[in-house]
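Private note to self, pasted from the team thread so I don't lose it. Backbone tokens:
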């Protein structure tokens, strides 16, 4: 026996529809199963969308409009779990002081609170993430850390938990988080049952790092790395020592290494390794070359060496990466 839990999801103008719909689908499917089981009479979930602003109609990133029956200020019932579903670019730029103040005040009365994707910004602005571990979409890792240095940001995991505060990464990670919350409430068996019905993993293998870029090419313009990049791509299979890289731009190895580190934040050796992994990823996604051939073309040694490097950078083996990200047309 258990009482029904009120799940309040706060959608944001301009956020991705999946940030909202994903958790809603998990909790609604679980509720349907619980209602059909006499052992769980009275249990389950009620899902309520609450607008963070006065408007009840909010347009998502895809143009689909969601309707919120209430605003957060109109909520007058005990909330079990509150989830901030994403944060559109307009909301990301604006300081919604009234909403953040409401979050600060309501948080002590909640059993748990969480965010999907960059909804973590709202929790951070409300001071709820201060001193805590958190994650957000991998693309916003640096920006989030710069804006909120008091938060311990790690954008590798799909979701994190610190006390009763939960944060999840990009888009589909909201589903991962919702399944974890469901398992916490009603056990693994029910969570697995919901995952099967949705044809998804109960726990997805890997980490967000599989999706992100290891090198930020936007910041390589007018740097040594940017000048060397086209040539390095052609000779990745060869030895790319500091001495050889320095000779290519007519610099001493010591001065080259110092300037390179200052410009990129990486040593030449680490940059070369990341470039090799990034190139290997493209071959795994788009080509029919064997892993052994890719390892050789990219200067990653053999299969064993390539596997070790992939696990270190992406937390996934080359073969698993190919199965997950292979171009759809390859089947």
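Design output:
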């Amino acid at each position: 026996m258990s009482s029904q839990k009120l799940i309040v999801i706060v959608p944001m103008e301009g956020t991705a529809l999946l940030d909202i719909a994903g958790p809603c689908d998990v909790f609604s499917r679980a509720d349907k199963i619980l209602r059909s089981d006499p052992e769980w009479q009275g249990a389950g979930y009620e899902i309520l969308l609450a607008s963070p602003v006065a408007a009840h109609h909010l347009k998502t990133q895809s143009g689909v409009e969601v309707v919120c029956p209430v605003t957060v200020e109109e909520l007058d019932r005990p909330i079990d779990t509150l989830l901030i579903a994403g944060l559109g670019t307009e909301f990301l730029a604006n300081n919604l002081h009234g909403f953040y103040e409401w979050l600060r005040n309501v948080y002590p009365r909640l059993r748990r609170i969480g965010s999907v994707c960059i909804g973590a910004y709202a929790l951070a602005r409300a001071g709820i993430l201060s001193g805590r571990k958190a994650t957000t979409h991998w693309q916003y890792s640096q920006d989030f850390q710069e804006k909120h240095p008091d938060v311990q940001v790690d954008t590798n995991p799909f979701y994190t938990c610190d006390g009763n505060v939960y944060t999840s990464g990009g888009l589909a990670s909201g589903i991962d988080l919702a399944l974890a919350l469901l398992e916490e409430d009603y056990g693994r068996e029910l969570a697995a049952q919901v995952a099967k019905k949705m044809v998804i993993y109960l726990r997805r293998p890997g980490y967000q790092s599989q999706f992100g870029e290891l090198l930020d090419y936007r910041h390589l313009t007018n740097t040594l790395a940017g000048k060397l990049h086209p040539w390095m791509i052609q000779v990745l299979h060869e030895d790319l020592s500091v001495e050889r890289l320095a000779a290519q731009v007519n610099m001493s190895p010591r001065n080259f290494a110092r300037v390179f580190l200052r410009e990129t934040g990486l040593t030449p050796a680490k940059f070369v390794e990341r470039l090799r992994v990034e190139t290997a990823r493209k071959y795994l996604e788009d080509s029919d070359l064997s892993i052994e051939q890719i390892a050789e073309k990219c200067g990653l040694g053999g299969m064993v060496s390539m596997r070790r490097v992939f696990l270190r950078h992406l937390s996934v083996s080359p073969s698993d990466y190919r199965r997950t990200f292979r171009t759809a047309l390859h089947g």
